[in-house]
Amino acid sequence: MADHISPPTVKTANPAIIGLMGFGMTTILLSLHNAGVLPINMVTLAMGCFCGGLAQLAAGLMEYRNGNTFGTTAFTLYGTFWLTFVAIKADPFGLGAESASMGVFCLLWGLLTLCLFLGTLNGRYGPKVVFSTLTATFFLLAAADFSGIETLTVIAGFLGICCGAAAMYVAAAELIEVQYGRAVLPF
Q1: pLDDT at 1 over 80
Q2: In terms of pLDDT, which residue wins out, 1 or 112?
Q3: What is the mean pLDDT of residues 33-57?
Q4: For FRET with 134, which of 3, 4, 97, 140 sits at 20 to 30 Å CA-CA?
Q5: CA 153, CA 182: separation in Å to the nearest integer?
Q6: What pLDDT is recorded for position 9?
């Protein structure tokens, strides 16, 4: 009788770290523009395409493989957000984006983000901060687009910087936790 040999167990990495870092860095860069600190240029668009878009799409697909519905939904959709945002700003069809359309765009993303925020309420504190500040950022940007009040964009920019920094912190805390095998930074 042949011995049964079990296949080796495969440990999978935590793709949320990639997604959160890509999201955090890109959000800070765009938010610096919204806050009036930096212009929007090729640096922002390239970061949005690759770190915000492709890295988050990859993280979303890896979260799917891990069976994480929340991570799959969040990272895949925000990856598409960044790719869409880059396409809007690059304007390859020369159609432009009027304020009302951008207001609806931000409002829809704010509503999605609010739903995701509700999904964080039974978890750790860090994701609650990321999703609550992102929800407020999108709603402020929508209000700015609808009203034309530039101050709302600036406020959204500073709030977005906080959101991006929180996402990077959560990613760093998770990475360090994996490396040390225990919680080191609270999140």
Answers
A1: no
A2: 112
A3: 97
A4: 97
A5: 40
A6: 78
